[in-house]
RNA sequence: GGGAGCAUAGCUCAGCUGGUUCAGAGCAUCUGCCUUACAAGCAGAGGGUCAGGGGUUCGAAUCCCUUUGUUCCCACCA
């Protein structure tokens, strides 16, 4: 069989993914094994895969595949989120492009379009995940709007209402004029903005006196209902009880005195607009001021004041500035930097607005969730997020859960004909409650009007780890009891509050137990210039293109190598190249082993015997280290450990040590051991690089249909022989020294050299390895000096490579003198420490002992070097 | 405005409770090599007063204080 020298991922990836699917390796059913569960952070149903998903899902797949190979019953539940506001916005936009408008449709018509859209685009992202190699249990794919999941949401709302935790009321909320819905505080992003500070003139009624008021939002003068100054501000004390005229509007409003106003800021006078600012609203309540709501839901001016009707809020700001100036009521305009609340979903400026909404009381609910994280029942990785979490949970506010949208779970509240409402899971139940409440037995379902609003998307996703196993409606079912609590959650820190915190809350409220034990928070994928990846910058590569170009394994390696825990990922295209090169390295090691001719009759060389023994120990040691890393979610480090083990130790050293001469067969014992090592390495690599490892594993041995590396068990740790590891490290040092001599003297590898040893000896095993790798023809222990030789010292033993006339005495002397100087300097620093009485007395005996050994070693080396220099100088 | 984190080779990061090699890795760089698995490779090399300053200690990249820079979270200063 001719194997190409380059690995081609295209030949194996789809093939093996189909094979895994066909054999049902991803599917999990409860059994008597221990479970290992991950629920996917459900991507938006209409989303497409981006680099963030790649990172996130690669990490999840590594964890799941590893758990599976540890013999656990691994279950990774995939699914998508209906993403209420985002999806609705997309559908509205699509309809608009077709000349249709949501406002012209009934709710049912609109939802019809939304479901069409979902069916058309939904699940694309899940198909893309398959290209990455994600081993999700696709038979369990869920959607947050599936019937049973929606049912869970409704039941939860009703339950929380019955517990008295849900209330309805008029509050100042964050209004998104584009989506025309309320948002929760978490959905508002505060952004720095260069804006203007306008100084307006308010004239005191019946006088000529002018009060200057600084504002960033001059358009809100339409809604002014008072002017507020600090009672301790001497500039304004004489104005107590007076009124001022709102510029342009001409309305007379009172002057109120409250120490909320900062004397230092602006002019010390504040215009109060209770309908459009949270602070002004509070002042309004305190002083019983009129609330004048001047905006329509879409951000244009309504007809309340009778001016500028229908003008957009930002157009009005410009217009009113002009009008104020023309009327002589504007003192000046200054540049000003402030923060503006932006809708997380639509990107438009938030308008604080009074409206009737549904809220969930969070204070009591959040207590167990706070404690769980504080005592590491739910462990966050990296743990620095504990602080952030704590701060948020301790200052948690009620959650506005209603959204003025159609796409989502409609709030199960039913209004009664003569006021009041009931909350129930079905209209039928609502009717029963309504009859009880009103005492009116003649009510019918048609008399009840269901609330128009839907619930916040996160009100469904906070149940995700429970609802995917139907644990809300059906709390004692076999699945939820087996898979819950889940093990690991992998997600971005940007949704720590939106989602993670709330899932923990829901977990304790509905299962009395945490939803997961560990939360791995990934970094953000950025480009090499540290810029966030975004469509508009065009710096975000298409993951599918990358997979097509480099192969999924290479992309996975690339993502993981740069993803040290908690740090942002700086992506550039040398990373997948590194992944590809590594794939190729593995492939070529496979080619080497595969092409050997195995002989049952030839004897196993001593060098092979010790090499096998050595690598066996090294492998065990590495397994231990990389497992410890993985257990602590140091995924990048564990992969790097494996990378070096395979590349440097296995390919660079081990294979060279046991490799038969050109076109010679290999003995069976060595061959078998090597194949076994290779298989173990493949198994360790499999969670990171599932495709290439499966491909090679299948060709490395005889495999039957239905066998797969992904369901094999990870290799066990055997005895770690430390002395052997040291011995081989020493041999490597000797080999490297010989290579250096070869290099400086231009001695080709094919020309053998002799090696003389003085002042010690090597074991037969070490010697055999050195003979083989360094192409040494003979090793001889001598007691006399070796003339005409280049020398080096390893662990107090002198080594000589005879060079005859080729030796450059000057050069050799220089080399020795440099080393002597270095060693003397080293000795000096050691002696300095040891001559310090306080060090010798205070430091632990072990540390002092080490220093003494260093001293002895250095002195020995200096003696040898001095000796060698003297002799060489006398030639 | 409040809080948290980070600052170690050109780049990205390790360095666990202060003490085994006068600071490690990967990538990049430089120098040799198309050596019969692999040039997507092999053999080597260079590169850091551990952000600045102070302190604790026999001993500090590691602990404390401080300055500077940087990132993030929270917050109702018009």
Please, could you describe this protein's structure?
- The chain has 875 residues and is an alpha/beta fold.
- Helix content is 44%, strand content 18%.
- The protein contains 27 helices and 31 strands.
- Strands 7, 8, 9, 10, 11, 12 and 13 form a 7-stranded mixed β-sheet that branches. It has a 4-stranded antiparallel β-sheet with strand order 6-5-14-16. Strands 29-28-31-30 form a 4-stranded mixed β-sheet, covered by helices on one side.
- Strand 28, helix 24 (764-773) and strand 29 (776-782) form a beta-alpha-beta unit.
- It is elongated, with a radius of gyration of 37 Å.
- The chain starts with 12 loop residues before the first helix and ends with a helix.
- The model has no long low-confidence stretch (mean pLDDT 92).
- The chain binds one RNA strand of 78 nucleotides through strand 8, strand 12, helix 7, helix 10 and helix 18.
Secondary structure: elements and pairs:
Elements: H1 13-22, E1 35-39, H2 51-69, E2 73-77, E3 79-80, H3 84-97, H4 107-121, H5 124-132, E4 142-143, H6 147-162, E5 166-176, E6 181-183, E7 188-204, E8 210-215, E9 226-229, E10 243-245, E11 252-257, E12 269-272, H7 278-286, H8 313-326, E13 330-343, E14 351-360, H9 363-374, E15 379-381, H10 385-394, E16 399-400, E17 402-403, E18 413-415, E19 421-423, H11 427-438, E20 449-450, E21 454-455, H12 458-461, H13 464-467, H14 478-483, E22 486-491, H15 496-511, E23 516-521, E24 525-527, H16 543-550, H17 552-561, E25 569-571, H18 574-594, E26 598-599, H19 606-631, H20 635-658, E27 666-667, H21 668-685, H22 690-700, H23 722-745, E28 753-758, H24 764-773, E29 776-782, E30 789-794, E31 797-802, H25 809-835, H26 837-842, H27 845-873
Parallel strand pairs: 1-2, 3-4, 9-11, 15-23, 22-23, 24-25, 26-27, 28-29
Antiparallel strand pairs: 5-6, 5-14, 7-8, 7-10, 7-13, 9-12, 10-11, 14-16, 17-21, 18-19, 18-20, 28-31, 30-31
Helix pairs in contact: 3-4, 9-10, 9-15, 16-17, 17-18, 18-20, 18-22, 19-20, 19-21, 19-23, 19-24, 20-21, 21-22, 23-24, 25-27
The protein binds one RNA strand of 78 nucleotides through strand 8, strand 12, helix 7, helix 10 and helix 18.
